């Protein structure tokens, strides 16, 4: 269709026909009403906005849209209707049909995946689905920048608070929509991302940022999307009050629409007003005058969502404005041509009258369902897990009780099925800006979450709701029973009772835990991730970004370790941004002690200095000597090969990697890879990793590879103290061929004020009751039984560590636990004092500030019904020895995941955590190792 003035159909000379193209209207009801029919037939309405109240199933929607287009065609419309829909995903889906329409994450949830490509795929899939039922315009993408992210009602509907990131994901979504044949409408110009709410429903929310501030932030995504071909923009219904502008309603202001949007940003597409039926706008101006103002300001489509009488008033107001010469006929024609050009890009009568409907949707559904799962899995974000509780399958035993606490869950009959959410009456003007969806209600979703958790635990789940009434006796009783508590919050920054409840429960769990009762607390934000984003007192904090049923399913699978959550908070809170990495291949050389010793020492110090405050780098206390093992005898049978990337001119080391090979078990180990912080993201680590693998795989008879080394005990695996960094590293190693599905969890525990430590009540009696014998030996005399026990039940590194300890009789001893029946060993542990040779290879024992550090190292306790009490007995004797040696701090190193909780109950805290990875060497046989 031509949109030039010369090619306009003569029918458009009729003012009524031309004005009809300047309105977008809606109605209430799932069938065509006489009122909407009259608007199309008699008033030549050219655009319709469908909402939740119009739509049932996908099939009925296709029929409804086809009927609307048929009415227009039969009424003589030269071009089809523009049919628009809000389908933002997350909690904003006007069309919902679980059999044919897929649920995808919200805009912020998609951004949490860190993948603009995935944003494109999700938008493209969404557009294909709504296009199949006859919709030709989507009211998106949302381009608002959450300048004041924590308190804005848009929440997860927006990408985040970084203008460039909002641009990136907004444009990716826009292209996804457009490439599916749908036209796009960016919203909400100039921004709903930082509004001040005055409280009254008759007062407009206000933008107080200056034009300069808007230009540097809120306007950036609009400017970038316009440059990339955005079809339409919705102008908001907010006020603007700053030094350069005083506007009551943005969409009625020529300063905003004509000057800022058209002239300054260069937008030539279709502008759509906010709905003129909103209370504040209609009360201030009146719909008739407001319609004239909107068109005068530069709006091409005036939106009126619901009331037929108000819609007729708007039409008559615009006609009167033309008749009174307030609006020129040329002005109407400008909007007419823009709208006709927009329609030419997305529809034709052939397309409009024949929506493919269910036949296409049923074909698309399987691939879209897989995309939905992928998107939700990728969006789940673990912002903190200081207690290393995730996955629960590794830290939470089958016999323990799990408690789920969800907000405002009302009891439903057992036969209750999925229900369409009803729009609740908004309690404040702030809440009116939150788009309600036609997916399952929050209460039903949380009930389904409970079902999923119960299924995972074979029915072992406690689940109740909480309200503004706070922590009640029923909550206290359940918290006392449970070992692990999951609290769900939804916009706790606005629903302050959720914040208070969560903090109260966190305090209870802390007090109960310090009293010896295991109380693990996991807080899950299912809407705004800002609920507890900055609150470090919540140690384990997970974000899902919406509480659709699909999101809850992904949450449960993440909690129980079916996949490793990779999401990160979008915007300025994102801890690790995606960096386009160089594909350089660095020259990797063999480590030379004489040449590289000083450079390695300097590299270690550099990494230590750049570690975050109050956080160890992993290399804290290490030296260049830490990586060279002291063994030479054939029976110890360790071979070591280390590699460096260096500047041959300055002798500076850019990166270092250590590897070890144990001949008897045919196991190759990568003990460390680290890179100068100033040289990261340049593929140095990748080059070192490839060289290390190639060296190990050349060993004759090699069977397995291990990432992490217990001796030297510097990196026992992937460090997990900083969870987002650990997740990033895990993803990196997975990409480079490692199997990350079944890591071995290893912990370093500590008691910091050893002089104040006292055994938990009843522990001594429990140890004495089982009648195990405990003794302490030094040196190689009487060591044969210990070495045989360790060789049978532990790894080669542990055996090597015991040999070292036995050789250092002055500073180390071995505590043995013996069976009361036959005297056989049932457990051993190394006890060390300061100035031991082990300190070189176990930097965690390094003495700082002159304070002695006592070690309780590598407990070897085979599985048995009494294993826990044996472990406690060994640890108890180790603590006593450390106290006797005047140690200020006690470190318990090399603790497995199964042993951790037993020791935490004795008063130990987690100092560090690791995930040791193992892979069959054949897995790397097809990998290109350079």
Automatic annotation (TrEMBL):
- GO BP term, pick one: peptidoglycan turnover
What InterPro entries does UniProt report for this protein, alphabetically? Answer: Acyl_CoA_acyltransferase, GH, Glyco_hydro_3_C_sf, Glyco_hydro_3_N, Glyco_hydro_3_N_sf, NagZ_Beta-hexosaminidase
Gene Ontology molecular-function annotations: hydrolase activity, hydrolyzing O-glycosyl compounds
One Pfam entry for this protein is Glyco_hydro_3
Which stretches make up the Glycoside hydrolase family 3 N-terminal domain? 32-342
**Keywords for this protein:** Glycoprotein, Glycosidase, Hydrolase
Q: Which domain of life is it from?
A: Eukaryota
Its family?
Belongs to the glycosyl hydrolase 3 family.
Name listed for the protein in its UniProt record: Glycoside hydrolase family 3 protein
């Amino acid at each position: 269709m031509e949109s030039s003035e010369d090619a306009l159909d003569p029918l458009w000379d009729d003012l009524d026909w031309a004005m009809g193209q300047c309105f977008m209207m809606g109605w209430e009801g799932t069938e065509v009403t006489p009122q909407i029919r009259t608007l199309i037939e008699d008033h030549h309405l050219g655009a319709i906005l469908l909402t939740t109240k119009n739509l049932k199933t996908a099939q009925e929607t296709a029929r409804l849209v086809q009927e609307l287009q048929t009415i227009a065609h039969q009424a003589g419309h030269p071009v089809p209707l523009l049919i628009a829909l809000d389908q933002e995903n997350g909690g904003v889906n006007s069309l919902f049909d679980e059999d044919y329409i897929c649920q995808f994450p919200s805009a912020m949830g998609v951004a949490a995946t860190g993948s603009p490509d995935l944003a494109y795929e999700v938008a493209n899939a969404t557009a294909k689905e709504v296009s199949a039922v006859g919709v030709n315009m989507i009211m998106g993408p949302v381009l608002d920048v959450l300048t004041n992210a924590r308190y804005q009602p848009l929440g997860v509907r927006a990408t985040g608070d970084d203008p460039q990131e909002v641009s990136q994901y907004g444009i990716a979504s826009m292209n996804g929509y457009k490439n599916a044949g749908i036209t796009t409408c960016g919203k909400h110009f100039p921004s709903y991302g930082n509004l001040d709410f005055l409280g009254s429903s008759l007062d407009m929310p206000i933008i107080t940022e200056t034009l300069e501030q808007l230009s540097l932030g809120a306007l950036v995504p609009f400017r970038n999307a316009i440059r990339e071909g955005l079809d339409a923009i919705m102008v908001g219904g907010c006020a603007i009050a700053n030094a350069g502008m005083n506007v009551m309603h943005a969409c009625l202001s020529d300063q905003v629409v004509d000057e800022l949007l058209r002239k300054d940003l260069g937008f030539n597409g279709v502008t759509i007003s906010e709905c003129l039926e909103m209370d504040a706008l209609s009360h201030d101006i009146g719909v008739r005058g407001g319609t004239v103002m909107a068109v005068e300001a530069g709006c091409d489509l005036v939106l009126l969502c619901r009331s037929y009488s108000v819609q007729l008033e708007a039409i008559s107001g615009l006609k009167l404005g033309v008749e009174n010469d307030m609006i020129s006929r040329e002005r109407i024609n400008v909007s007419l041509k823009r709208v006709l050009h927009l329609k030419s890009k997305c529809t034709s009568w052939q397309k409009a009258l024949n929506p493919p409907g269910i036949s296409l949707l049923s074909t698309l559904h399987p691939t879209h369902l897989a995309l939905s799962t992928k998107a939700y899995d990728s969006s789940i974000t673990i912002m903190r897990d200081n207690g290393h509780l995730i996955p629960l399958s590794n830290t939470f035993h089958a016999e323990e009780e799990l408690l789920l606490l969800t907000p405002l869950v009302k009891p439903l009959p057992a036969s209750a099925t999925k229900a369409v959410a009803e729009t609740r009456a908004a309690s404040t003007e702030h809440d009116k800006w939150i788009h309600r969806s036609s997916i399952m209600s929050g209460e039903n979703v949380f009930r389904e979450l409970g079902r999923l958790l119960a299924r995972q635990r074979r029915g072992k789940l406690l689940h109740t709701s909480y309200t503004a009434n706070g922590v009640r006796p029923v909550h206290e009783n359940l918290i006392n029973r449970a070992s692990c508590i999951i609290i769900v919050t939804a916009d706790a920054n606005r629903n302050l009772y959720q914040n208070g409840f969560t903090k109260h429960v966190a305090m209870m769990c802390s007090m109960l835990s310090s009293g010896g009762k295991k109380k693990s607390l996991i807080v899950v934000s299912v809407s705004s991730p800002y609920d507890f984003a900055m609150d470090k007192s919540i140690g384990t904090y997970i974000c899902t970004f919406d509480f659709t049923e699909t999101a809850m399913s992904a949450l449960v699978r993440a909690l129980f370790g079916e996949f490793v959550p990779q999401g990160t908070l979008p915007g300025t809170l994102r801890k690790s941004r995606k960096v386009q990495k160089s594909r350089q291949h660095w020259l990797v050389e063999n480590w030379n002690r004489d040449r590289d010793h000083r450079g390695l020492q300097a590299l270690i110090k550099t990494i230590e200095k750049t570690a975050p405050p109050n956080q160890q780098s992993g290399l804290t206390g290490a030296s260049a000597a830490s990586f060279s093992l002291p063994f030479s005898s054939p029976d110890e049978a360790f071979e070591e090969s280390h590699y460096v990337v260096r500047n041959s001119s300055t002798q500076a080391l850019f990166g270092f990697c250590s590897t070890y090979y144990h001949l008897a078990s045919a196991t190759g180990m990568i003990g460390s890879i680290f890179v100068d912080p100033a040289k990261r993201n340049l593929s140095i680590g990748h080059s070192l990793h490839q060289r290390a693998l190639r060296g190990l795989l050349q060993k004759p008879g090699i069977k397995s590879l291990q990432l992490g080394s217990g001796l030297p005990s510097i990196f026992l695996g992937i460090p997990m103290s900083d969870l987002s960094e650990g997740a990033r590293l895990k993803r990196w190693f997975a990409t480079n061929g490692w199997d990350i599905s079944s890591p071995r969890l290893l912990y370093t525990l500590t008691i910091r004020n050893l002089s104040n430590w006292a055994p938990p009540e009843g522990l001594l009696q429990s140890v004495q009751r089982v009648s195990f014998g405990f003794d302490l030996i030094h040196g190689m005399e009487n060591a044969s039984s210990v070495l045989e026990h360790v060789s049978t039940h532990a790894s080669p590194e542990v055996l090597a560590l015991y040999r070292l300890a036995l050789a250092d009789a002055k500073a180390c001893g071995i505590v043995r636990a013996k069976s009361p029946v036959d005297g056989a060993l049932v457990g051993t542990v190394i006890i060390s004092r300061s100035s031991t040779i082990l300190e070189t290879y176990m930097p965690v024992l390094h003495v700082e500030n002159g304070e002695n550090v006592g070690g309780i190292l590598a407990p070897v306790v085979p599985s048995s019904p009494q294993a826990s009490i044996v472990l406690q007995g060994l640890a108890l004797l180790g603590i006593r020895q450390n106290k006797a040696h005047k140690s200020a701090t006690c470190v318990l190193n090399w603790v497995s995941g199964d042993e951790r909780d037993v020791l935490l109950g004795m008063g130990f805290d987690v100092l560090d955590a690791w995930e040791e990875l193992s892979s069959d060497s054949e897995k790397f046989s097809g990998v290109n190792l350079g």
